[in-house]
Amino acid sequence: MNEDRSVKFPIEAEMKVVITDGEGAFGVATIGLGFGSFPTEQEVQERIQRFEREELAQLQGYRLATAPELWDYACLERTGQKFATPAAYRDFAPLD
Fold this sequence. Notes:
By secondary structure, this protein is α+β, with helices and mostly antiparallel strands. Helix content is about 30%, strand content about 20%. It has two helices and three strands; from the N terminus they run ββαβα.
């Protein structure tokens, strides 16, 4: 985690994570990222992993959406229909 957690901004950071049952049902989980500063990419990655391991495990039948499922979700939310998945959306880019 970020060693300098001093307050820098009057904010509360959250992210929305798309989850699915793998059969076409989607949900969105709001995950807190703390107060007063922006999280680093590593902190976001660690928080998603902790969410998957500890909190999502309690939602029986749901898991994190894959990259193509995220694309489907975005298309359905914006237009009400699905489109072909772009090649770049076959998998998530690694977070290094």
